[in-house]
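As a warm-up, study this chain.
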Amino acid sequence: MVSFNLRIILVLSLLFSNSAAAKDLKDWRRLESLKPGAELKIELKQRAGKLKGTLVKLDDTGIDLELKGRATRRVNRTEIQQIRASDGVRKSSPLIGAAAGAAVLGSIGAQERFDFTPTGVLIVAGIGALIGFGIGSAFRSPVVYLAP
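Now compare it with the structure written out below.
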């Protein structure tokens, strides 16, 4: 009986902790920690599209975003559905994964017991690179704001 009650308490605490984390994402003030030049991906409400650029300025009413190859655009807070902050590590994750996959499977394929030809080793390394690229691509930029 005690273990059943303990499970109930554990499940309820996990549910409340997740809802608290979601409330934090809905707090506009979280964005104050972003520095100008931070790369952002903004998803607009009502399927109006997505914007990608660097943060120029942030205030209580919205964000000034410098778009790639374009001028600065003002995005009102009321237009925003969610914001993701990008960092350089996540951009290179697919490449790192591809290199690691190629190295691991390539070295396995090069062992004498498998007796692969050099072409076979390259094929196995290529398969490893594709697997690593797929795994590395799965890492997305974290959500820093979610509209209430």
